[in-house]
């Protein structure tokens, strides 16, 4: 089974939640005989056009221009057609209008699956112009995959296409992550001190970092913030304004350093306040490591990973008082932390392994391929409503261990 993935950016140029989910899917899918190729755009003009990563190939086309943070390229259309003609199934990743355009203008008539990562949250005036193209695109594909039952039930876009929606949670593979040695963990322990809460992520508008900084200032519990991004200066200034000397900013860290911090942490916090946080890979990594979590109820996959009082605590978004109360409850109760950590690890093993995700996608690929051969769409189940929330030349590299 030959699959062509098409997404706006990928390893080794960038690393993000969508890129990581595709990477883990390709690695796990290879065990099932799925031959994955990822077609993506790149800003690099002197790099190789083709890169061999573990278990899959990345084909790169130059990025012509950007409109409102959307990468576009006329050059990639020919490559999309060439690679698409060789594929059994085309797998697109939404939202990215370039994928809509490529799908509609090349007329490949190949079985097509779309992973619906998130609703479009910003540039609302541009979304008004884009909506007709989006609806035509989603109407024309064979299957749309939501990453959580919560998102399938709460997305107004997905509700319009519910007959072709399936739910497959994202998954990750522990074996792909590096293992920190004792010396590294000792260095981090000496730098940070005792127990601490941990945030890992890019400093973006929807991550809820102002709420986290205020909550940390209220509790005075040690908080380690790992990451960087557009709001880094603003968030650091906010911590200084609150006098939050208990907050340690460690910047962008390598994968092995991230794993060391996860092992040493008391609990992981993802205080995202907006549906742009559709899933939360950092929560998946925390669950994989058996760490209790604190997140916010925003009607997305964050509450599918972090089940309230089963794997962690879920609080209202943007509420620094509630977040501080949750931090206090976990900090003061080792027994609760242990119970929630065990629950997180057990829930991960049942629901969120990359092998489970790859097996679900492999079934979908075969269903849509069989549906096209027979001239009819393959049957699939509509999503069930979510439970009511409780608050050129090839080069080789492994970006998970070498790039962050």
Characterize the structure shown.
The chain is an alpha/beta fold and 404 residues long. The protein contains 16 helices and 17 strands. The protein has a 9-stranded mixed sheet with strand order 10-9-8-7-1-2-4-3-17, sandwiched between helices. A 6-stranded parallel sheet has the order 13-12-11-14-15-16, with helices on both faces. Strands 5-6 form a two-stranded antiparallel sheet. Helix 7 crosses helix 10 (255-264), helix 8 (209-219) packs across helix 13 (320-332) and helix 11 packs across helix 14. It starts with a strand and ends with a helix. Residues 376-397 have low confidence and may be disordered.
Major pleated sheet? 9 strands, mixed
Taken from the alpha-carbon principal axes, the silhouette is: globular
Give start-end ranges of low-pLDDT stretches: 376-397
How large, in whole angstroms, is the Cα Rg? 21 Å
Number of helices: 16
- Structural category is alpha/beta
Overall pLDDT confidence: 91
Give a brief description.
By secondary structure, this protein is an alpha/beta fold.
